[in-house]
Amino acid sequence: MGQEPAGAGPDGHAARGVGGKGRVAIGDRVLNAGTPDRFRGLWGREIGVLPQEPWLSLDPLMRAETQIAEAHRLVRGLLPRVARARAASDLSELGLAEAGSRFPHQLSGGMAQRVAIAAARAGGARIVIADEPTKGLDAARRDEVADLLLSEMGQAGGLLIITHDLSLARRIGGRLIVLRAGQVVESGTTRDIFAAPGQAYTRELFAADPESWSPRPSAAHPGPAVVSAEDLALVRGQRTLFQGVSLKIAAGQVFGVTGPSGCGKSSLGDAILGLIPPAHGRIRRQGGAHPFAFQKLYQDPVAAFPRKRRIGEALADVVTMAGCAAREVDVLMESLGLDPKLLERRPGAVSGGELQRLSLLRVLLRKPAFIFADEPTSRLDPITQASVIRLVTGAADTDGIAVMIVSHDQALIRNTADSVLSLSEPGNEETALRHRHRASSLS
């Protein structure tokens, strides 16, 4: 755990074209890290890999259950009928019993992550490498996935977790390595390091956990409503995600939305932006706003940037469209802690955390009146997460931007938002709106 090295790829590893060195021993095999093609025969059978981005590991043309059954059949060697039964069982264990017939684009980020986990472990590999396996999952699902990975490992297996999630690291236990800029800062048993971190960076990392944040002061005088919704209901397919939701987000206000994976948090933001129609209710947006006034900060920045264009070229297009000064890119790059050299790279040569900050930069260039931030820090280490959240909330405080933050991290929302909406599982009779207003927030 720790900060991602500069130049890492979307999965946090070295960018494409960077060679490795050293040796890797797996059982009685010793492999040269400089010739990664020699590892190919181990994939799925000896080593299972769960990438950070489920959208890059799932086939967009295959239904969820079919993808998992294929791994059971082709890698583990099960008969087709048995493979399908195992796939259905895997989905049920992960709380996705009704998702088997859906395509990846029909799943929420957290649901897609769980499908990717099921597919990665279907081959029966003894060693599992999981890169941010609980990104985008609520606390209950996070713990379920951690327990599932540990149980799948068995007595003779191994589990390597790459994560920024301190709670996940605690639950997994075992040994812990803290990295910074590609260098080992500290290593030892997880219990000992959490009890008494020996290095200043490790202590700074732990202190940046949202559980340790001081609550953000509420806006004393919020401005007029930028968006509002009355008696909103949303349906996806044949499933009602929520109903009876009413809200109002004022200029300068930070509005938080929490709830379990698949409850409709992201869909609520999309409906407010006009990207999907509500099944019932009314949405009002501030009149007279410029064309770029309502912006979305996507949960998966990999899917939001053109893959074949350099980052600088994509941002130059935004500068032209928004009519802002090119120097604003440099100012925001510095405030977000981004190396200017990243502008010369394509998205595939930039880490997930860096790409998420570049996504925020792109949104801020458009001088929005409203930002829907969908899990904006799920790819960031705690220190960078804290700085990005300060920048987002600072935009609300200083520029009067209305901000809606969706997050599974209840501590982050609790210590950041002026008002909070909690959504429940679809079909739950208690899916009614539950607001928490802080002392001086919008009434």
Q: Features of this protein?
A:
single chain; 443 residues; alpha/beta; Rossmann fold; 2 domains; six-stranded mixed beta sheet; three-stranded parallel beta sheet; 14 helices; 16 strands; globular
Structure description:
Belongs to the ABC transporter superfamily. Keywords: ATP-binding, Cell membrane, Membrane, Nucleotide-binding, Transport. It comes from Sulfitobacter porphyrae. It holds the Pfam family ABC_tran. The chain is of the alpha/beta class and 443 residues long. The protein folds into 2 domains: 190 residues, Rossmann fold, CATH 3.40.50; 213 residues, Rossmann fold. It has 14 helices and 16 strands. The chain has a 6-stranded mixed beta sheet with strand order 12-13-14-10-15-16, with helices on both faces. The protein has a 3-stranded parallel beta sheet with strand order 3-4-5, covered by helices on one side. A 3-stranded antiparallel beta sheet has the order 9-8-11, with helices on one face. The radius of gyration is 22 Å and the shape is globular. The C terminus is likely disordered.
Second rung of CATH, namely the architecture of the largest domain = 3-Layer(aba) Sandwich
CATH class of the largest domain: Alpha Beta
> What integer value in Å does the Rg equal?
22 Å
Low-confidence stretches: 4-18, 429-443
CATH superfamily of the largest domain: P-loop containing nucleotide triphosphate hydrolases
Sheet with the most strands, sense and barrel status: 6 strands, mixed
User: Which overall shape is indicated by the principal axes computed on the Cα atoms?
Assistant: globular
Number of helices: 14
The percentage helix is 25-40%
Tell how many strands the DSSP assignment holds: 16
Largest sheet: spatial strand order:
12-13-14-10-15-16
Distance between the termini: 41 Å
Q: How much of the polypeptide forms β-strand, as a percent range? A: 15-25%
